[in-house]
Amino acid sequence: MGELHVMDHPLIQHKLSILRSERTGVKEFRELVGEIAALMCYEATRDLPTEDIEVKTPIAVAKARVLSGKKLAVVPILRAGLGMVDTIIDLIPSAKVGHIGLYRDPETHEPVKYYCKLPADISERRVFVVDPMLATGGSASAAIQFLKEEGCRTITLMNIIAAPEGAAVIRRDHPDVELYVAAMDEKLDEHAYIVPGLGDAGDRVFGTK
Ligand code: PRP
Ligand code: URA
After folding, report:
1. 165 φ, ψ to 5°?
2. Interval 99-133: pLDDT, tens
3. Does the beta carbon of 33 sit less than 6 angstroms from any atom of ligand 2?
4. Relative to the alpha carbon of 111, which ligand is closest?
5. Is 133's C-beta closer than 6 angstroms to any atom of ligand 2?
6. Which of 22, 93, 107, 123 is deepest in the core (most CB within 10 A)?
7. What is the residue with the minimal CA distance to atom 7 of ligand 2?
8. Would the pLDDT of 1 be above 90?
């Protein structure tokens, strides 16, 4: 059973406060999304298995640990998820990156898939799906469903801001998925935007509005 982790680390919460502000411009917004993603990744990878090795330092042989077990993949949901990728693969250079393009139909709010390119060996990897926003949960649930159909067995979802409605959808559709969020907000508005949220994450990452 996957758990819900709300990350109340002071650094994450401080950066999130700036991210939410309507006065934060595109450059700073993009930098903050990356920084928060890195901090969330640090925590979300805490349970990765390691194995003992020995390393010869200039002084002596040290007992050390390196990552073992399944290789990793990061899968951003386009567009806004792209803002979380670079800092994560800086931390985990061996991770491969898959892309799933989904947009929400403005009327129905249902996700529409328009692009997908995944690593050939995705089914053998532990997958981190990243997207700053979990609103109705439709996009994340569809992306996870697709990854499962491709054979993925161990999936973690990382969102910066979630609505309770979206978290409930992930719990219902994918109870096995571990969910990491920096904030659980109050609700969705009539346009399925998160309240108070931060507005449209894709537009704010890429400056399209
Ligand atoms: C946003 C966001 C998520 C989705 C969340 O993307 O980045 O992917 O909405 O909403 P949901 O939980 O109700 O599905 P959007 O569809 O606006 O596309 P964009 O990233 O290209 O702007
Ligand atoms: N997508 C966003 O970018 N923001 C929201 O509040 C909801 C969906």
Report:
1. -60, -45
2. 999 998 888 988 999 999 999 999 999 999 999 99
3. no
4. 1
5. yes
6. 123
7. 193
8. no
